[in-house]
Amino acid sequence: QVQLVESGGGVVQPGRSLRLSCAASGFTFSSYGMHWVRQAPGKGLEWAAVISSDGSIKYYGDSVKGRFTISRDNSKNTLYLQMNSLRAEDTAVYYCAKDRADPSPGCDMWGQGTMVTVSS
Amino acid sequence: SYELTQPPSVSVSPGQTARITCSGDALPKKYAYWYQHKPGQAPVVVIYKDSERPSGIPERFSGSSSGTTVTLTISGVQAEDEAEYYCQSADTSGTYVVFGGGTKLTVL
After folding, report:
1. What is the pLDDT of residues B48-60, one digit of tens each?
2. I need a labelling partner for B81 at 20 to 30 A (CA). Which of A11, B18, B24, B107 fits?
3. 8 Å CB contact of A61 and B96
4. Which tens digit of pLDDT belongs to each residue from B19-66?
């Protein structure tokens, strides 16, 4: 079955960096775009970034643009999110999600999420 | 930046019909998706492409679209449907993905 497993979360000081990973299985990873979506404590879902199936196209939400980088390794069926210059407001559960490949972006499978806490 | 607007909360009694709306200027041109999110769990897509229901989602979940508003309808609401529901779409360029603020469905 389709499975997405995030890892790499933890506690990090403001201004530092962290890299999240998302291991995919149960589908042809290289055929689908992938998203990172986050949820801050007590807040709603916020889209962070998307990457095309071959990794050539990337888009970012305004709050992470210029600080976060989405990437993928199709040989390892793994999605990444490099987070630099972290701020307290980046504290959230980070989910990876598989895109449905419809004409509009939309997700059909999500991981369980990994918690990132930015605190001194 | 592009925004989708949902009501913060909807309350219904078991067996009644719940309707959750989502408004956005680009919705006539871009599909909407609806996700059910329960605490501590991964979100689950309940409607895709405005009105399509994934396999495994109960028939009581349906979606519709009219102009700049899409609607998630849950007929015969059950206690297990209590959750946060989010609409999601994209701006007209398709490069900016956005979620609505979420609607807390309470089953009385």
Report:
1. 999 999 999 999 9
2. B24
3. yes
4. 999 999 999 999 999 999 999 999 999 999 999 999 999 999 999 999
Pull the structure tokens for residue B82: 């209590």
- What amino acid is encoded at A28 in this protein? T
> Which residue in this structure is represented by tokens 């999420």?
A113
Which of B66, B65, B89 lies closest to A45 in space, CA to CA? B89
The amino acid sitting at A99 is D
How close B19 comes to chain A (CA, Å)? 19
Closest Cα to residue A56, out of A43, A72, A68, A37?
A72
Pairing of strands B83-90, B69-74: unpaired
* Among candidates B41, B86, B90 on the partner chain, residue whose Cβ is nearest the Cβ of A105: B90
Residue of chain B with shortest Cα separation from A42: B39
Distance CA B62, CA B11 (A): 18
pLDDT tens for residues A94-106? 999 999 988 888 9
Angle at A90 between CA A100 and CA A84, to 5 degrees: 90
Give CA–CA dist A97/B76, Å, rounded. 29
Q: Which of B35, B45, B94 sits opposite A104 (nearest CB)?
A: B94
Query: Looking at residue A103, what is its pLDDT?
Result: 80
Cα separation, A103 vs A33, in Å, equals: 12
Of B49, B95, B102, the CB nearest to A59: B95
Mean pLDDT along residues A30-55: 97
In three-state secondary structure terms, A90 is helix
